[in-house]
Write a structure and sequence with these properties.
Helix content: 40-55%
Number of strands: 11
Shape: elongated
Strand content: 15-25%
Radius of gyration: 29 Å
Distance between the termini: 100 Å
Number of helices: 13
């Protein structure tokens, strides 16, 4: 097992959520046969786990629409007394058992999941085990819209000017009479530095202070060399680098080849699919939650504008911020499930409301007009 492969297993005992996410994806990929399918299965599991919360969100939005005329009447009546208005609104919400923030909870829960998946797919651990995995029209699950293409473990870095490097979590350290596996590297993000200037196509000189190795002073003094998995943070390429001890530092010189940043059309297509599914999801939700005669024209106009411009804004954001294809796959799948869920749940709510209207209560029977039989 190489030092790069060993490093991916570190952190499980310390509740490393990124590593746990990767291990879970590994398990899913083992059953479904592909990491792309594993991400889709993960999305389905997350959405199923959140189904009750999303149903509650849709019920809350439906109730908001039906209560909107009364809410607007309270706002108009107490518009000159904001404190009184808030008091009356709170009493109104309490009376109708309505929580105006109830629809936000599913969004707040999904945000950490998105961040966790983003961190996992951008991490060196994922690149080591599945970064070059293809899925459908996607060439790699870890690639972003604009990225350099580097082949890991070929003994040289494919670089562009300004690239930075990061060490793995552990090192294999060679002493005169002993080999130490899984030596912890403290603060891997800052452990490796570039010595002097480097140009793409020329060797890059890397150094690492001995202080970053979690060893005793006696062991540090005996170090002959160390093997460390080094990641190019621009393209996530990983190479196993052998550092030799020079005075109080570990030093290495690694060949590089010049690569240019490429525009990945498969990722752009995925971004476009996300925008389309998001637009469709918002349209379905607006249509499902629209109550005849109860909607506020101003609020409806705002929602319509948001439904049009939000996808455009997100496309712009994803063009600037590097989002891995695997994360975009999660978002697209999540939007499709959201569309189906909105249709299913709102049909159930409409059926419940229709049944309630058709129910004959005891009071209806008591208040019904009695008709005497004709003699």
């Amino acid at each position: 097992m190489t030092i790069a492969e060993e490093s991916q297993y570190k952190g499980l005992g310390k509740l490393d959520f990124t590593t746990l996410t990767i291990k879970f994806l590994q398990m899913l990929a083992h059953f479904v046969g592909n990491y792309g399918f594993a991400i889709i299965v993960l999305t389905v599991l997350v959405r199923l786990a959140m189904w009750p919360l999303n149903v509650s969100q849709q019920r809350s939005m439906k109730m908001m629409q039906s209560l909107q005329p009364k809410i607007k009447a309270i706002q108009d009546r107490y518009k000159n007394d904001p404190q009184k208005m808030q008091q009356k609104l709170m009493e109104f919400y309490k009376e109708h058992k309505f929580n105006p923030m109830g629809g936000c909870l599913p969004l707040l829960i999904q945000l950490p999941i998105f961040i966790l998946l983003y961190s996992a797919l951008m991490s060196p651990q994922f690149i080591q085990i599945a970064g070059d995995t293809s899925f459908g029209f996607l060439s790699r699950l870890d690639t972003t819209l604009r990225a350099t293409a580097g082949r890991s473990y070929d003994g040289q870095f494919g670089v562009s000017q300004g690239d930075t490097f990061m060490a793995g979590k552990v090192a294999k350290v060679y002493l005169p009479n002993e080999i130490l596996d899984n030596v912890k590297i403290k603060n891997p993000a800052k452990a490796v530095e570039i010595q002097g200037d480097f140009k793409a196509g020329e060797n890059v000189d890397l150094k690492m202070s001995l202080d970053y190795l979690n060893l005793k002073f006696e062991q540090l003094a005996q170090i002959e060399k160390a093997e460390v998995a080094i990641t190019d943070m621009a393209n996530k390429e990983i190479e196993n680098v052998t550092f030799k001890k020079q005075d109080n530092v570990l030093a290495a010189s690694v060949p590089t080849i010049k690569t240019e940043r490429a525009f990945h059309w498969d990722v752009f297509l995925l971004i476009a699919l996300f925008a389309i599914t998001m637009f469709a999801s918002q349209k379905v939700m607006m249509a499902a939650n629209k109550t005849k005669g109860a909607s506020d024209p101003t609020q409806e106009a705002i929602q319509k504008s948001m439904g049009t411009f939000m996808p455009i804004m997100i496309i712009g954001t994803f063009v600037i911020i590097p989002i891995p294809a695997g994360v975009l796959l999660y978002l697209v799948t999540s939007n499709i499930i959201q569309i189906l869920q909105t249709i299913i749940v709102n049909k159930q709510i409409d059926m419940e409301q229709a049944n309630m209207k058709n129910v004959v209560t005891d009071s209806d029977i008591e208040n019904a007009k009695k008709i005497e039989p004709k003699e």
